[in-house]
Amino acid sequence: MTTQTSALAKPSRVDCFDSVRDAFYDLFADPDEVGAALCVVVDGRIVIDLWGGHADRRRRREWERDTVVNIFSAGKGALAVAVQILVDRGQLDLEAPVARYWPEFGVAGKSSVLVGHLLDHRAGLPALRTWLPDGSLYSWDTMVGHLAAEEPWWEPGTRHGYHPVTFGWLVGELIRRVDGRRVRDFLCDEVSGPLGLGLTVGAGQVESARIAAVVEQSDGDQALTSVFEDLPEITRKAFANPPELLTPGLVNRPACRAAEIPAVNVHASARDLALLYATLADGHRPAGLLSRAAAARVQAERVAGPDAVLGLDSRFGLGLMLPSPLRPFGKGSAVAGHSGAGGSLGFVDADARLGFGFVVNRALASGVGGDPRWAAITDAVYSCL
User: Fold this and answer.
1) pLDDT at position 365, please?
2) Residues contacting residue 291 through CB under 8 Å, at least 6 positions apart
3) How far is Cα 105 from Cα 114, in angstroms, rounded to an integer?
4) Dihedral sign from CA coordinates of 279, 284, 290, 296
5) Are 126 and 153 in contact (CB under 8 A)?
6) What's the pLDDT at 140?
7) Structural domain boundaries of the chain?
8) Please, are residues 69 and 344 in contact by the beta-carbon 8 Å criterion?
9) Contact partners, residue 351, CB within 8 Å, separation at least 6
10) What are residue 299's phi and psi, to 5 degrees?
11) Minimal CA–CA distance to 277: which of 10, 17, 11, 39?
12) Could you give the CA distance from residue 61 to residue 355 in angstroms, rounded to a whole number?
């Protein structure tokens, strides 16, 4: 089996970035690889813009320059930026109780949950205890209603645990309560629009020919279910409640693409991620989007150590993941970003004034150490800086 890689854009400064281009090409030496894209922005300028392979499992559609794909949790970075826009405008206080903006939330032991706790994963709401019925995943009101009524799994603020799916509804509803717009519309108007990005929550309005299908690597429903059965209750429910989250091919289904599930179904290109994260680096911050203070806030470490959900050490800023042995990416002490299930990754290196975006449609399950495709590419990028 061969994978076509002729649809590769040539980077600027080819003499310097040949090694990056080679590392990207090397992905397709694996006959199982399907499609991918890579973009690097330095000092506000795109220096690498590569894409290749195919946008579908049968390899009938080539990956094009404007192809987007579901990036899963790599989309959390856009939510983090959205919140900081509201903080900059004085509409949101990170140290205020969430209930100030969302009154229904302040029950069942959650009156002490602060806005910052939603972003740094200390809110204690990584999962819902009661298994929800079919259809819940697609109903915004159902999900935020259950979260508003839920009792925290731990005393808010005392520990952290990754909120893999609930993060999107919690932060998205906070944005809606403060601004009045749904998170999908807020991101479109205030982030994607000003930056010229194609990043969207869901892909209901995206031309189908531009969407790459996610190709899952799974041995079937039974194997996937058995993996989750062996996990602690909090972890199992964090990733699999509503149970529809375990539906094979979920993110390729029209219903999922049309829905608003910010922690699950953000669609973007590598270019979108690189340009988004470049806004957090000095030297490329569009006037009026984010202040320098906001860019620093979102990247600063807030929590580190044992993760109550993942069972391993993790690190987070205000909505951004920070490098750790669990998810290593970038180099140095000024790196922050977010990975997504399956392998997509975006990050900023403020010292290098770099924005990085990598998206891929062959979804690999990765344990400690992150996606095996990252290292060679990021090493090549840093060798050029």
Assistant:
1) 85
2) 88
3) 11
4) positive
5) yes
6) 98
7) 14-383
8) yes
9) 332, 333, 334
10) -95, -20
11) 39
12) 28
Residue 285 burial (CB < 10 Å; 0-12/13-18/19+)?
A: middle
**What is the structure's pLDDT at 385?**
87
Q: Residue 47 and residue 36: Cα distance in Å, rounded?
A: 17
Q: Which helix (H) or strand (E) holds 22?
A: helix 14-27
CATH fold of 14-383: Beta-lactamase (3.40.710)
Q: 190, 165 in Cβ contact below 8 A? A: no
- Residue 229's pLDDT is 73
Place of tokens 């032991």: 109
Amino acid identity of 357?
A: G
Rounded Cα gap, residues 345 and 368, in angstroms = 15
**Residue 285 in tokens:** 């911050």
CB–CB of 111/86 below 8 Å? no
Q: What is the dihedral of CA 300, 305, 310, 315, to 10 degrees?
A: 10
Give the distance from CA 11 to its chain's centroid. Answer: 25
CA 317, 138, 367, 28: dihedral to nearest 10 degrees?
-110
Q: Which ranges of the chain have pLDDT less than 50?
A: 1-14, 219-224
Taking the C-alpha atoms of residue 257 and residue 263, their distance in angstroms, rounded to an integer, is 13
pTM of the model: 0.93
- Check: CB of residue 259 under 8 Å from CB of residue 137: yes
pLDDT for the residue numbered 11: 42
Predicted pLDDT of residue 1 = 29
Q: Which residue is listed with tokens 């997504």?
A: 340
- Identity at 138, one-letter amino acid code: Y
Q: Are 266 and 251 in contact (CB under 8 A)?
A: no
Task: Give strand ranges (E) for the chain.
Answer: 35-42, 45-53, 68-70, 200-201, 211-212, 215-216, 266-268, 303-306, 313-316, 335-339, 345-349, 354-360, 362-363
pLDDT score, position 17 = 79
